[in-house]
Amino acid sequence: MSLLIIDRRPEYLGVEPDSTSLLMLPLGSRSYIDYIISSVGETGDVWIVPVFDHFEGYEKNLASLTHSALKVVSRDRLTDVIGESDPEDMVIVVDSGVCPMSGFSRAATMIGDRGYLGATHVVAVGDGTERARERIVRDAQGNVRQVKRLFQGTSWPQVAHKRLALSLVPAGALANTSFESLPKLRQQLGESGVLQQDQPLVSGIVNLNTQEDALELAEQLMPSAFRRAHHRRYTRKSRHVLVGSDCWIDKSVRMVGPVVVHDDVIIEENASIIGPTIIGPGCRIGRDSVVAQSVLARDAVVDSGDTVRHLVSAGGQSNASLGNQAASANGFAPLDFDPYASITGLESSKVESLPGYQKKVQMRIKRVIDMVVSLCVLIVFSPLLAIVALIIKLDSKGPLFFMHYREGKGGKEFPCIKFRTMGKDAHAQQKELYAQSELDGPQFKMDHDPRVTRVGAFLRATNIDELPQFINVLLGQMSIIGPRPSPFRENQVCVPWRRARLSVNPGITGLWQVCRSIDRSEGDFHEWIFYDTIYVKRFSLWLDVKIFVATVLTLGGRWNVPLSWIVRTNGHQKPRVQSPSTAQLG
């Protein structure tokens, strides 16, 4: 099996023949070409097909960035080179401008020896959390009643030809083909009558033809630079700074990690390097200069006093060209990057005030507490549960429990157990009553819901209907304290909120229940989002204790308590938590 890589040179890397290319970019502590080859695994020949004019030393520069033997082949000679191979040999084709967010190694495992003699294309169908379709539902007066959001990969399919991660093609099928992208290759194979099949890859795609996406990929691969064994040739100058060999860095240089400095780099006095930043081999950074959240390719030059911010530089550039790029970089949004969270493997949507290891320990303690407390509650209140069950059966026809599927940690659905408080076919009747909902979000509530039984009204008023949820807690599907458990349709409204709240188990009670507005008929969906997000970011066992005490004192949230009583800041710093009316929620 051979490997064929299409190399590109986007405009942000320069247009001169001696400019760097995507395969030469440093990513983490290695080059992009080395990342691709090592991810795909052991192969035979490695062919590089540049789709741009290149200089004589291009192949030598590429070879210096990887231990694998490779050969640069022009597009017009590709047929002749491949023709030397056995027609039945398989060729993995990778486009350097397209990288799966889950990495090439996962994509490569999907094209193993399956006994299929045609071409196989690995198609990234998305991770099911980012892209969405929206449908606005209005009433007769034109007022918005619902916003239905359907996420890709979970509720609607999409296979776009531009989302090809890689292809596996018989060498004989590549004869007489001339292509510069995977979609073009796929089209030509189809026109030639070559059998083809698709394999879906649950992953997003990073488009390295744009500078912003190239910075994103560098950021994603940064944590691996501090974990993997092939970085042993680097010296760890601090917890989040790696430095290669033959580097000269003045003692006055300030570095805020994560920062990876490749070999043969010179950084002069009083320079500032702010991560996430990758400095490629042979770079020269002058005195009093600043490099912030950028990637410097090999031999890049930053002259004294210059500032390079949110850029992917081209190799060999002088301060004039870099300075011009820096001045025009305002079009790129700042990277949303928490270096310490990423180094410990936590996503930015799960950032909390506790260090990662403390959160893990407290989460384990919380699970033990949940198990013990839920078991005690079920035993102590078993007589009450039996009496309530008997009354429900005598009051109306139907099952004893109402089990509705809600999304738990990681989006995994589970049957949330409650005592039944409504009559038969209540769920079907909700669609007819939805226009009368008194809340502004996807959730449904009516003060005088006609579906609620006489006994059900009492159970709801006293929160006794939620006692069976301690079974969910005992099974590990819920926690005593946490965000409100919600079904799939309610979690589709706000992507960041969904990712945050589904990073922990939902709870029987939580911050929203004890701090929300007193007038429950004026339910504010953004208020609900606000309190759930605050809980996830500020999680600690002490916070759980305060929420539990507030729940008891307010008799299950019959009146609210100020947020400042539960969430406080350290020392004399001003609170970082905004009120729901002023917080920017998205």
What can you see in these coordinates?
This protein has 586 residues and is α/β, with parallel strands linked by helices. It has three domains: 2-209, Spore Coat Polysaccharide Biosynthesis Protein SpsA, Chain A (Alpha-Beta Complex), CATH 3.90.550.10; 212-336, UDP N-Acetylglucosamine Acyltransferase, domain 1, CATH 2.160.10; 348-565, no CATH class. 27% of the residues lie in helices and 20% in strands. The chain contains 17 helices and 31 strands. The protein has a seven-stranded mixed sheet. The chain is globular, with a radius of gyration of 29 Å. The protein starts with a strand and ends in a 33-residue tail after the last helix.
Largest beta sheet: strand ordering: 5-4-1-6-11-8-12
Number of strands: 31
Class by alpha and beta content: alpha/beta
The CA-CA distance between the termini, in Å, is: 47 Å
Give the overall shape. Answer: globular
By oligomeric state, this entry counts as single chain
Number of DSSP helical runs: 17
Average of pLDDT: 79
- Summarize the biggest pleated sheet: 7 strands, mixed
Helix content: 25-40%
The percent range for strand residues is 15-25%
The unreliable regions are 317-352, 569-586
Question: How many structural domains can be distinguished in the coordinates?
Answer: 3
Radius of gyration: 29 Å
Task: List its traits.
17 helices; 20% strand; globular; UDP N-Acetylglucosamine Acyltransferase, domain 1; alpha/beta; Spore Coat Polysaccharide Biosynthesis Protein SpsA, Chain A; six-stranded mixed β-sheet; 586 residues; 3 domains; disordered C terminus; 27% helix; seven-stranded mixed β-sheet
